[in-house]
Specification:
globular; 188 residues; 35% helix; alpha+beta; single chain; five-stranded mixed sheet
């Protein structure tokens, strides 16, 4: 008896459950774009090297061209379409818009998804390859342009909007810290 090569799966995408039939070899990227019409996630290299297809999987960034859709079943998936809250852009989206962190825009959805995760990873104290002091008690390193560039290095921009991208990530991270500080003051 030959095992089945396709099945119906349920994906939790942007806060919504979506059930769809997929071939077991279907990537998450292809399921999002071709089966669910979520075309914000872009297909770039299709080899996991450019980052254009970056989405958040349980809050962590992943290149969806290397992730099988069946392996994402039951996990929380956030695409660029799920970043904004109604008409209110996510702070990272707003910073990209304000600082021209895009040119052609093709890589922008992956850049934004990656930046959201970068900011969260940094706030949690995760070191990068350029972090000087990686001891947990040292806390998060300063989010310098060098740190941002290293942490965003898996996302390529063929137009070269890197200077604006780094500025946008820094601004969004600063806005997040300010919001957290205000929330802490309100609780105290």
């Amino acid at each position: 008896m030959t095992p089945p090569t396709s099945s119906a799966i349920t994906l939790h995408i942007n806060g919504e459950k979506r059930t769809l039939p997929v071939d077991h070899r279907t990537t998450l990227l292809d399921a999002l774009r071709e089966k669910l019409d979520l075309t914000g996630t872009k297909k770039g290299c299709d080899q996991g090297q450019c980052g254009a297809c970056t989405v958040l999987l349980d809050g962590r960034r992943t290149v969806s061209c290397l992730q099988l859709a069946v392996a994402a079943e039951g996990r929380e998936i956030t695409t660029i379409e799920g970043m904004a809250e109604g008409d209110r852009l996510h702070p990272v989206q707003q910073a990209f818009l304000d600082l021209d962190g895009y040119q052609c825009g093709y890589c922008t959805p992956g850049q934004i998804c990656s930046a959201v995760a970068v900011i969260e990873e940094h706030a949690a104290g995760w070191p990068s390859a350029v972090t000087d002091d990686v001891r947990p008690e040292a806390g998060p390193p300063p989010l310098t342009p060098e740190e941002i560039r290293e942490r965003m290095s898996g996302n390529l921009c063929r137009c070269g909007a890197y200077v604006s991208i780094v500025e946008a990530v820094a601004r969004a991270a600063a806005a997040g810290r300010a919001t957290a500080a205000k929330a802490g003051e309100a609780v105290a």
